[in-house]
Write a structure and sequence with these properties.
The longest helix has 18 residues, at 304-321. It is elongated and about 70 Å long. It is 44% helix and 15% strand. It has three domains: 10-50, no CATH class; 69-165 and 305-332, 3-Layer(aba) Sandwich (Rossmann fold); 172-301, 3-Layer(aba) Sandwich (Rossmann fold), CATH 3.40.50.2300. With 340 residues, the protein is of the alpha/beta class. The protein contains 13 helices and twelve strands. The strands form two sheets. The chain has a six-stranded parallel sheet, sandwiched between helices. A six-stranded mixed sheet has the order 7-6-8-9-10-12, with helices on both faces. Helix 12 links the parallel strand 9 (281-284) and strand 10 (299-301). Helix 1 packs across helix 2 (21-28) and helix 5 (85-100) packs parallel to helix 13 (304-321).
């Protein structure tokens, strides 16, 4: 593994692939219309094995050179990113810190999370940005793992799936456990969990807290009560249509891991003529749209602005000190039960 930022040359790639330097150059610049699939495969395999990424012309810069730029990586589409209140609030705190230390941000959204995207990020680390901040990471995230091994300053918003360092998180497990306890401590209801994508670290934390909460109220875990999917209105609406046909409202309760999902879920109830006051539900995170539509709905409040500020401060500390590991911060949450 190229773990110490040793610069691999295009000549080395060509030698391993058994082709000329000009052929590799044509491939990297996407001039391969007449190139055979065998040759392209050889070059791609060599690029991956050597962890080669092209320079943007900054390889001659001194190692301690600072660009005063950081890259923020959000693996969601643009519409989701800029309309979700969580990102807006965290980014608000982060932008305050970056401005305070005179740093600029490059925001990268979407992408395929593959080797090409990873090589692009590696390229940015050579004289384009000083460090990276990652949102919504997956289990065994290749971006976080590879850049950490290369000793590049990174921070994760949420739990770092690769190392017990370099992250700022909310205590998701305790928050979910508290929510389940609130839902089930007075009566024996089936507690449904509307969770996020299964491969997300956040979703695993939520599921762990859910199970621990069930243990506290002496309720048996039932996998059929778990609904996993995107943090979206559409997914919540789809779950609502299924749930309201399947369960007795007076014998069920719902823990929802996203405000967007909760809004879709409640919308399905309205469309089916269900009295929403009969629905016992709690939402993780505050959402202005949700609070406007359903002002009496309980939710778990996060310290989003402080998360943003802290992740920025941690990253800039590493950049300035020339270090690559830093202790994590985990913020606690608050259960909010609005008065009717």
């Amino acid at each position: 593994m190229n773990s110490k930022l040793k610069k691999v040359t295009i000549k080395e790639v060509a030698q391993l692939a058994g082709v000329s330097v000009s052929t590799v150059s044509n491939y990297l610049n996407k001039r391969y219309n007449t190139m055979s699939s065998t040759t392209k495969d050889k070059i791609q395999n060599s690029v991956a094995k050597l962890e080669y990424y092209p320079s943007i012309g900054a390889s001659s810069l001194p190692r301690n050179y600072r660009t005063q730029n950081v890259a923020i990586i959000i693996p969601q589409n643009i519409d989701f990113t800029f309309h979700h209140p969580y990102f807006a609030d965290v980014m608000g705190g982060l932008s305050e810190t970056l401005e305070q230390y005179e740093y600029r941000a490059m925001i990268i959204v979407g992408g395929k999370h593959n080797v090409d995207d990873l090589n692009y990020l590696k390229t940015l680390s050579h004289g384009i940005v000083d460090g990276f901040i990652f949102f919504d990471v997956n289990n065994n995230d290749i971006f976080v793992k590879s850049l950490s091994n290369m000793e590049i300053p990174i921070m994760v918003v949420g739990k770092n799936p690769c190392y017990d360092s370099n992250y700022v998180d909310t205590d998701i497990v305790s928050a979910t456990k508290r929510g389940v306890l609130y839902l089930g401590n007075r009566d024996k209801r089936k507690i449904l969990l509307i969770n996020g994508p299964k491969d997300m670290v956040f979703s695993n934390q939520t599921l762990t807290g859910y199970k621990e909460g069930l243990d506290l109220i002496e309720s048996e875990y039932d996998e059929s009560l778990i609904y996993s999917g995107e943090f979206s209105f559409e997914f919540g609406h789809k779950v609502g249509e299924k749930v309201f046909k399947k369960f007795d409202l007076d014998k069920m309760a719902v823990y929802s891991a996203s405000g967007q999902t909760t809004i879709g879920f409640m919308k399905a109830a309205n469309e089916m003529g269900i009295d929403i006051n009969r629905i016992k539900i709690i939402n993780f995170g505050e959402n202005p749209s949700m609070s406007s539509l359903y002002p009496y709905l309980p939710y778990i409040k996060q310290q989003k602005k402080y998360i943003g500020r802290s992740v920025g401060e941690k990253l800039i500390t590493m950049i300035r000190q020339g270090t690559f590991k830093i202790d994590p911060i985990v913020f606690q949450t608050q259960l909010i039960i609005p008065k009717k």
